[in-house]
C-alpha cells in the first residue's frame, strides 16, 4: 500500500480543526463533527469484503462482523477488553438504530466518546489473521504497519480532546450523520399532557398541542418535534402505547427526551423535514417556518395523551 492515505489526511485535518477552536465545545452541533465521523466511517469501511444477501453480493458494514466479536472470545481465544465488549453489547441492544449502517455509526460514536478508538485499533493490529477474514489484504489500513501506526497516533491525539456527545441522540443515525438537538425534559405529574402524537415511519411526531397543555408554558415542545424517549422507554421503531405508559407512571414526574425540528439557528432539521413530508405532514413544516401564519392543523390518526 502507499505510504500515505487520503482518509488519514482528512482525519488529521478534522482533529486539527477541533484544536484550533478550543473554546467551542465538541458536541453534536460542532460544525466539524459530520465531516469527522464521515471520515472515520470511510476509514473503517475501506477494504471491507463483500457479503451475500437475498439480492446477491453486497458491501458489508462494519457492524456485520463487529456484532460477532463476543463469540470469538470463546471460539478462537481472541482477548477483547471489557469496555469494548460493553460498547458492542450496548450498540446491539439499542433500539434507536435498526440498520447495520445505524449500528456502525452508534458504535463509532461510542468509541469516540469513551476514548476507546485506540484500544479497538490495537485489537485489530494484534490480530491480523482475524482482520483479514473481513478485509481485503491489499486494502486494509489496520494490517499495514506504517499506516496503522499513523492512525494510532491520530486516535491518541483525539483522546486528548474532551467530547460531549449524547449517545442517546441516535434516532436518525440509520439515515444520516447529521443530528438535531436532543432535549431532556421533566414535567410535574398530571392526568393529561395534552399532546397529540402520530407515528411517522420509526418516529413519534408531535402533531397537536392542546391549549390547556402546560408544555406551552414551558416553551419546550413544538409541533413537529419527535418524542424519542418517554418515561425512560426509547420509542424509536416501536409501537408503544403512550397513554398506557402515562397511566402506569401514576403520580411520578413525567420525563421525556425530544428531538427538535427547529435548530438553534432557526433553521429546520432537514432529515426530520423529509420524514414529515413523506408522511404527508407538510403543514407542520410550513407552520414551523412561519409560526405566526395562523395555519389550522387538522390531522387524522394521532393519539392524544
TrEMBL record:
SUPFAM superfamilies: RUN domain-like
Entries under InterPro entries matching the protein: Run_dom (IPR004012), Run_dom_sf (IPR037213)
Source species, domain of life: Eukaryota
Limits of the RUN domain: 27-170
Protein known as: RUN domain-containing protein
Amino acid at each position: 500500500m502507499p505510504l500515505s492515505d487520503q482518509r488519514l489526511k482528512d482525519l488529521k485535518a478534522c482533529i486539527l480543526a477541533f484544536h484550533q477552536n478550543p473554546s467551542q465545545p465538541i458536541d453534536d452541533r460542532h460544525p466539524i463533527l459530520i465531516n469527522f465521523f464521515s471520515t472515520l466511517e470511510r476509514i473503517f469501511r475501506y477494504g471491507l469484503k463483500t457479503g451475500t444477501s437475498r439480492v446477491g453480493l453486497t458491501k458489508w458494514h462494519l457492524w456485520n462482523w463487529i456484532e460477532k466479536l463476543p463469540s470469538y472470545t470463546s471460539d478462537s481465544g481472541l482477548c477483547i477488553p471489557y469496555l469494548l465488549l460493553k460498547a458492542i453489547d450496548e450498540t446491539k441492544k439499542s433500539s434507536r438504530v435498526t440498520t447495520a449502517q445505524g449500528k456502525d455509526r452508534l458504535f463509532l460514536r461510542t468509541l469516540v466518546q469513551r476514548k476507546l478508538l485506540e484500544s479497538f485499533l490495537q485489537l485489530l493490529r494484534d490480530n491480523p489473521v482475524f482482520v483479514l477474514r473481513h478485509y481485503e489484504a491489499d486494502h486494509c489500513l489496520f494490517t499495514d504497519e506504517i499506516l496503522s501506526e499513523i492512525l494510532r497516533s491520530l486516535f491518541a491525539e483525539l483522546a486528548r480532546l474532551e467530547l460531549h456527545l449524547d449517545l442517546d441522540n441516535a434516532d436518525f443515525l440509520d439515515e444520516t450523520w447529521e443530528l438535531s438537538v436532543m432535549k431532556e425534559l421533566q414535567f410535574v405529574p398530571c392526568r393529561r399532557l395534552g399532546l397529540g402524537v402520530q407515528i411517522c415511519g420509526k418516529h413519534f411526531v408531535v402533531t397537536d398541542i392542546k391549549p390547556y397543555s402546560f408544555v406551552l408554558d414551558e416553551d419546550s415542545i413544538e409541533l413537529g418535534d419527535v418524542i424519542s424517549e418517554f418515561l425512560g422507554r426509547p420509542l424509536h421503531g416501536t409501537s408503544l402505547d403512550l397513554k398506557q405508559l402515562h397511566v402506569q407512571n401514576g403520580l411520578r414526574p413525567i420525563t421525556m427526551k425530544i428531538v427538535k425540528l427547529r435548530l438553534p439557528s432557526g433553521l429546520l432539521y432537514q432529515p426530520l423535514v423529509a420524514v414529515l413530508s413523506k408522511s404527508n405532514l407538510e403543514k407542520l413544516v410550513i407552520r414551523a417556518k412561519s409560526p405566526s401564519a395562523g395555519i389550522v392543523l387538522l390531522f387524522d390518526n394521532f393519539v392524544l395523551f
